[in-house]
Predict the structure.
Amino acid sequence: MLKLYIGNKNYSSWSMRPWVLLRQAGIPFEEVMVRFDAFGADSVFKTTLASVSPVGKVPVLLDGDLAIWDTLAIAEYLAERFPERALWPVQARSRARARSICAEMHAGFGALRSHCPMNIEASLPEVGARIWREQASVRADVERLSAMWTELLVQQPEGSLLFGEFSIADAYYAPVCMRFATYGLPLSAPVAAYVERVRALSGVRAWIEQALAERDFRDFEEPYRKSR
């Protein structure tokens, strides 16, 4: 069976992507949660991951003795390993577009990531309002995301996901939906509706429920709070 190493569900946006992908696609896997204790070389987190990955980061997917790290590499591996699940869109043009926007997420939106780290348990609309006022780079990231999603959604039947049916692209942007909910950033009605559709997916709901159940406050992941 596949084995997926992840970090704390409340904070680890990169871990969320392959976990939701596997869960939503109905692919069986074993989860290994490696708690964020610290990130120094002698931390439990780093020493645990050293046995499975040369980079010492989550997520890591094990398939037998094969280790795959990096979220996009994991997604591509799963798409090849389970072609019947159609994890990428079926049409070639849509598939190319989905890969493009996943790569854009992988490499971009640094301001949103930095100023609005994923924190599923928290509700920080007042922080979000301040960030929105003060950080033009965050406003630019949200504008780009909104334009991207709107352009894709208008090509689909009402109530659909980015490429109609669930795909890697929706799993890739699920942590962004979590950020929008936590910080209450202003969104257009179609974009806000897409966020809620993603949050309602069974795989995403399961992640959220388990993130809330962790009750593990990590101060080094909390730029805006000193306690839960």
